[in-house]
Amino acid sequence: MALSDQVSDISTILPPVRQLLLVPFQLRTYGVLLYLALAFPLGIGYFAGTVVGLSLGISLSVFLIGLPILAATLGGVVLVAAAERVMARQLLGADIPTPSWGLSEASRLRDQVLTVLTTPVLWGSLIFVLSKLAVGVAAFTIIVVVLSLGLSLLGAPLYYDMPGASVGLFLPEPIRRELSLVIPWDQFEVGISFIVRLTSWEVSTLPGALLLSVFGGFVLLIGLNVLTAGGWICARWAELTLSPGRNEG
């Protein structure tokens, strides 16, 4: 391979690597982090309100009192979807145009109601609102693990020698595993065996704490990249469900 080809291959690899390293220093990363952090409490409220409203509305619709409840619930879904479009645009950079409801084509009230109930925009919004809880649970779990683990390791040099502080890996008892490979050969057995032993490890020196801090920075870097990728998935999901057909209104 020519030297110019090697340089060209390296130049194509460096930009993605540079993007991964710069994620913690980009404002958009923290917009994604805010969006994902809000997804859990919002998802609980969306799911509870929507499920309760639909359940009551459907069960009481035989007495007609359920129809206003259903209308209010679906209206709430529409309002929530409108707010979520704004959040997805501002925090995730999603490309979500305002959808068209097609009401201008229906002159009578009955036709307008049927148009709203049959439009993909309403059902896409309902799917998005109900799925928000699952997104929130996953995002909350990853955020808590990444931030708690990464920040605690990153700050190890600040508190490793404080009275009463213990920094390191602590196991109730050592873990011992034996890995073996045995191959039959005629009347003999030929094999090789390794013993892996994992014990507790406590940081008691500054170099050890600095090494732990470097590992914490690596955990934060990987975690923020994972969360950024999750934000990209959320943006695509919002584009798919909150504006089906991507019609300009």
TrEMBL record:
Keyword Kinase: no
Region forming the signal peptide: none
Keywords associated with the record: Membrane, Transmembrane, Transmembrane helix
Name of the protein described by the UniProt record: Sensor
Species for this entry: Halorubrum aquaticum
Pfam family of the protein (one): Sensor
Top-level taxon of the source organism: Archaea
Entry's transmembrane regions: 32-56, 62-83, 113-131, 137-160, 206-227
Annotated ranges, domain Putative sensor: 35-238
Keyword presence, Translocase: no
